[in-house]
Amino acid sequence: MTDMIDVKPVVADYESLIKPDKVHSSLYSDAEIYEEELDKIFNNTWVWVGHESEVPEVGSYKTAMIGRHSVIVSRDRKKNIHVLLNRCRHRAATVCEGKKGKTKSFMCPYHGWGYSLDGALRAVPKPEEYEGVFDKSEYPLVSLRFETYQGLIFATFNEEIEPLEDFLGGAKKWIDLFVKQGGGYPLKVLGDHRFRFPGNWKIQLENTTDAYHFPIVHKSFVTGLDEQTAEVFDFLDGEGHVEDLGNGHSVMVMIPELVDLEKDLDEPIPERFQELADALAAEGHSDLEVRRMVRAVGGSGFNLNLFPNVACSMAFFRVLAPVSVNETEIHHVAIGGEGAPAPFNQMRMRLHEHFQGPMGFGTPDDAEAWERVQKGSHAGNNEWILLNRGQANLTTSPDGNVSGAVCSETGMRAAYQQWKKMMTA
Amino acid sequence: MTDLNLLARVTAFINIEADMLDFEEYQPWLDLWTDNGEYVVPIDPHETDFANTLNYAYDKAEMRQMRVARLVGGEAVSTQTTEKTVRGLSRFRILEDDEIHVTVRCAMYLSECRHGNLKTYPADVTYKLLKADNDFRIEQKVVRLQNADAYLSSIGYIL
Ligand code: FES
Ligand SMILES: [Fe+2]
User: Fold this and answer.
1) How high is the pLDDT of residue B2?
2) Is the Cβ atom of A130 under 6 angstroms away from ligand 1?
3) How far is CA A161 from the centre of its chain?
């Protein structure tokens, strides 16, 4: 037998693939770059795994992906949250399948090892043969470091990483604004739409900070709206902007009037929400409560893009999970108010169904465009993806950040600078 | 005993509905519905309270009309690339039958071809039909896709 020589593939020169105004097409299609992204980015930073309302009670759990890793977010008997690797400590079988649920424990289907909600190994069938071999306390499910901000749960494999709040930095202010859309009630996840598209995850990452496509790709959606609402969505010539928040995060303000949902509660009720206002008033809610809910029901006027896998996108959380170099799974997570009146949460869900998800009036057209980006990016031997829109028209925001026009590619440039920083570290 | 005559009639009605969707006869399709009719594509396979849960689609009359307008308007790029759907319905069974309504469940195999890629969506479909002068009107159509609880690809057409 000849010895195999372990030749490490020549590492791509990431410096040369990311320019201030463009990125190289291979970022969408090179399988080696993709694997390295999973190591250097997804294994190495704060990654969104859920919202606290998704594990509301003792025994609630949900599953999530951190790059290649399947994880479980659970709530134990003391109501503490845990983020656990979904992998039996014996011979690796997943101990939990499905999106979410309630359980008393996690039982491995293979040889029956049983784990409690906090990951502790509780029971092993026929334990005699392990006597003198190991103690159960040595093999809990692997527990990941996690931190939360405003109910958003992020986990990481990197024990050394800065605290979540430092990582979020300038994004925190926007998360604070985003969570106001419960309409006076705490934010609650109401369900999610899941779909995949045949394209690289960064095409999706870019899209949440791409206002430029909206009137083109979503023309049919806008055509279907009443005049008043269509005007609200006609934001390219408005006063919006995109701001680089640092660490790859950015915010794209499309509708400045809807940045702070607690403000301007005395504004007239939009026509399309009059019926909702009447229904809420009929339930006995005060004028102020009604106005707060009506103002919040359509969501915030901005998209907050958090590197690398989640966006607080107007009225929902948009989560991305890379599946392979040319396939990505997306979750459009609908949110409403915990304990809010039924008509409010119903309207939130109907609005979500209208645009989001694989059968909404927006997503199929987005997905068509993304698929075509992936396909087109394979053409040419040394072509680039342009990110220079609005580059000569930058200002400094009141918070001291680089800021560009609402339809500029400022947010994408921010994300790719963070990508470069992490990939070359 | 199954009322074979009724079974034949509901089967014929449902097959025509399917044919209208495959051959893009959307205006007559809209006329098949009652004013309060609901077209639902749920996510959770066991869900029955559609108003209070998130669905892939939950269309009353207005949303159905908008969905059709989107399909025929020519502005939505995704509607231009899925040339056509082919759906077959079978395994018809009458679940309930009274003076006013008949409820039928059947299996649907639908395929689409986008950019040359053939994709199939099997589903259980339940129709609640209003009996109306020797014919029927759709009161509720619930399409439970077999993979609804996992993930879909984007679907720009009507199931
Ligand atoms: S792999 Fe889990 S008990 Fe053996
Ligand atoms: Fe879009």
Assistant:
1) 82
2) no
3) 20
What is the Cα–Cα distance from A348 to A336, expressed in whole angstroms? Answer: 6
* ipTM computed for the complex: 0.97
Nearest atom in ligand 1 to A113's CA = 3
Alpha carbon of A79 to ligand 1 centroid (Å)? 27
Q: For A98, left (φ over 0), alpha (ψ -120 to 50), or beta? A: left
Which of these, A176, A205, A173, lies nearest to A411 by C-alpha position?
A205
Q: What are phi and psi of A379, to 5 degrees?
A: -80, 140
**What would you measure as the largest C-alpha separation in chain A, in angstroms?**
82
Neighbours of A109 (CB within 10 A): 11
| Euclidean distance between CA atoms A405 and A396, whole angstroms | 11
Using a CB cutoff of 8 Å and minimum separation of 24, what contacts does A393-398 make? Answer: A397/A241, A397/A243
Residue of A409, A407, A405, A403 lying closest to A388 (CA atoms): A409
User: Phi then psi for A311, rounded to 5 degrees?
Assistant: -135, 140
**Angle A54-A58-A61 (CA atoms, 0-180°, nearest 5)?**
40
- The answer, for A327 touching chain B at a CB cutoff of 8 Å, is no
Nearest ligand for residue A115 CA = 1
Task: Count the alpha carbons within 13 Å of A227 in the hemisphere toward its beta carbon.
Answer: 0
| Cross-chain residue pair A224–B66, CB shorter than 8 Å | yes
Residue nearest to atom 4 of ligand 1 (CA): A111
d(CA B26, CA B32): 10
Scanning A78-97 for CB atoms below 8 A from B yields none
pLDDT digits (tens, 9 = 90+) for A346-386: 999 999 999 999 999 999 999 999 999 999 999 999 999 99
Q: Specify whether the backbone of A22 is left (phi greater than 0), alpha (psi in -120 to 50) or beta.
A: beta
Predicted confidence (pLDDT) at residue B82 exceeds the cutoff of 50: yes
A111 alpha carbon, distance to own chain's centre? 35
pTM, rounded to two decimals:
0.96
Q: What phi, psi does A332 have (nearest 5°)?
A: -100, 105
Rounded to a whole number of angstroms, the distance from the CA of A87 to the nearest CA of chain B is 20
Instruction: Tell which one of A84, A86, A111, A134 to mutate to probe ligand 1, the residue whose CB is within 8 A of the most ligand atoms.
Output: A111
Band of pLDDT at residue A1, cut at 50, 70 and 90: very low
